[in-house]
Amino acid sequence: MKTAIVCGAGGFIGGHLVNRLKKEGYWVRGADIKSNEYGNNSADDFVLGDLRNHEVCESLFDRKIDEVYQLAADMGGAGYLFTGENDADVMHNSALINLNILDLSRINNVEKIFYSSSACVYPEYNQMDPENPNCSEDTVYPAAPDSEYGWEKLFSERLYLSYYKNWGIQIRIGRFHNIFGPQGTWEGGKEKVPAAVCRKVAQAENGGLIDIWGDGKQTRSFLYVDECVEAVRRLMIGDFLGPVNIGSEEMLPINDLVTLVAKVAKKEIFINHIPGPLGVRGRNSDNTLIKEKLAWAPSQSLSEGIEKTYQWITEQVANPQQIVN
Ligand code: NAD
After folding, report:
1. Long-range contact set of residues 19-22: C-beta below 8 Å, sequence gap at least 24
2. What is the pTM of this model?
């Protein structure tokens, strides 16, 4: 039986990844500073601990581990990452986790380690035009991420690549682009755009008004979490190291996302544009490389994913006591 550690298993994508590995027959150890807030935890073993702490990280490797999936990071939505208020924490905490987990994977002869990087590594200067952002993998340099979160991701990509170069450790790097779906943070300030819009629409009356940061003309694409996990598994099974984009090419303005969610909710919704942290003007995944290297691209439409997510968030809004802390 193959064994895996999922760092960040208490989080959104980590919880879904554990489920997937369990379905594939792995023995899985989850690790996180918090338990999964929506009870999405099917791991065989769960270490509740701070991965900034080297001893906690060491304790994860008390048996032969074949694969490590490193998803733990100090992160959140635009309200957490783009105000600048959390920059020192974001850089310090996430870098320390990566330093610990990667080095211990080397020492303990882990066969392969996956690192979850982000579209936030791409330079701001290629994402000023909302209609034509350029996020193909080879445009990352000269580096100019728009946030310290992006700089830490870029530093850590280079850290993993250095370990591959100098130690031969098998690494795989995926750059996630706005992953969404059920059992993701939907309130409290760390939620991402799709979850925030679903919550606001779920809480609004028919004909109601919801707040959107900026003019709503900023564009993004969103990838449903099951597709993300599928891409991670394909990357781990294949020979290609990455970094490679894991995202959707179905880009739309945030105003259109609101229209889509309102349609799913069967409500008429009006938008109140307010100032707020925005990030880049436009961002879209470029899937040329993943199609070439993994012969794969996402197959679900955005509206299919939004339907499932909206339904789940509606249930959370109606029954918040269901949340497991
Ligand atoms: P998440 O916040 O739900 O999960 C991250 C987990 O890391 C959390 O459960 C958190 O408790 C844990 N963590 C943070 N600090 C820790 C510490 N010191 N010790 C132990 N655990 C700690 O986020 P997610 O959306 O599931 O993202 C997973 C990974 O993918 C992250 O590395 C993130 O940067 C990356 N990513 C996500 C997206 C996205 O759209 N969700 C986009 C780009 C990159």
Report:
1. 20/229, 20/233
2. 0.96
Active site residues: 149
In a mutational test of the pocket of ligand 1, which residue from 7, 12, 34 has the highest number of ligand atoms less than 8 Å from its CB?
Answer: 12
pLDDT for 279: 82
pLDDT value at residue 325 = 40
The answer on pLDDT for 322 being more than 60 is no
Q: Is 20 a residue whose pLDDT tops 50? A: yes
Phi, psi of 176 (to 5 degrees): -70, 140
Q: In order of start, what are the domains of the chain with their CATH numbers?
A: 3-179+222-246 (3.40.50.720), 185-220+250-283+301-322 (3.90.25.10)
Can you list the positions of beta strands (E) in 141-232?
Answer: 170-176, 179-180, 208-213, 219-220, 223-224
Nearest ligand 1 atom to the CA of 9 is 9
> 6, 7, 13: which to mutate for ligand 1, most atoms within 8 A of CB?
13
Angstrom distance (rounded) from CA 288 to CA 164: 24
SS3 label, residue 130: coil
Ligand 1 mean position to 12 CA, how many Å? 7
Distance between CA 173 and CA 299 in Å, rounded? 21
